[in-house]
Design a protein that fits this description.
4-stranded antiparallel sheet; alpha+beta; 300 residues; 16% strand; Jelly Rolls; 2 domains; 12 helices; Arc Repressor Mutant, subunit A; globular; 6-stranded mixed sheet
Length: 300
Amino acid sequence: MIVDYNFSTDEDDREDIPASKDFPFVIKYTEFAKMTGGSARWHWHDFFEITIPLDDGMILQTTEQTLRLDRGEAAFLNSSMLHTVRWEDDPDTKTCYTFFFDRSILTGEYGSVFEEKYVAPVTVCRDLDVFPIRPKNKPGLRMMTLIDDIINYFKSEEFGYEMKARSALSELWLILLEETDELRKKAKRADPTDSLRMKEMMSYVREHFREKIYLEEIAASAGVSPRECTRCFKRQIGLTPMDYLNRYRVRIAADELKMTAKPVSLIGEECGFASDSYFGKMFRQYLNCTPREYRRKTGA
């Protein structure tokens, strides 16, 4: 079964993945018209991910790279990587499939030869945060064929589909290893410092966004100076801490406008905006409409 996408995260910006422990592999179908702002905010998860756009112009961004993907292409995303997804234009018409799978699908028992020899080299590679899969050569074409096969297995759920999907995923993974061999040989081992700091600071914003927050407080949550806090945000996601805070507030406000009948001014106040005018200004800046226009458009 392929599940409809319902994007949500926990207090640490970790995406909620509805995968079972006995078969930790799930495929989601996403209609971006149903997502606030037509995009997925900065988030992460422990699962490996393969994203397959069903339309042209998907923008997949990590803290290190920005990829443009079209229909017929895909991208592999390493585990625990901060990332966001948006579209070049008209997100209300865009859709995609996303694979989420735990390493145990490939490795079996913890500490096995499969983990040490075939999976660990990917997870520790600093430069392999995201990797494009394009059918421009024989390996890329084979990977896309395997992705299509896996989607069809999940659609049919015929007897043995889990075994077939695991087998196809293992072959796809082996090709990924071969295609990234030179990159991994030249890469440095992953340094998680910036990523861990970002997760702590983003978690602080999520917990306190309704309050008046100062840069110094965001920095202190990760034990860094305000200057290093700003540098870390810029290095990791290309935004200042205050930009990230305002974007987060606008997204929460948009959800409130869509799901509740609260007065617009109250929503702005509860989301941490000091005045109606500033709320309206930030909302227009990030979602290209006023709060009231957004509420009318979403039918709330």
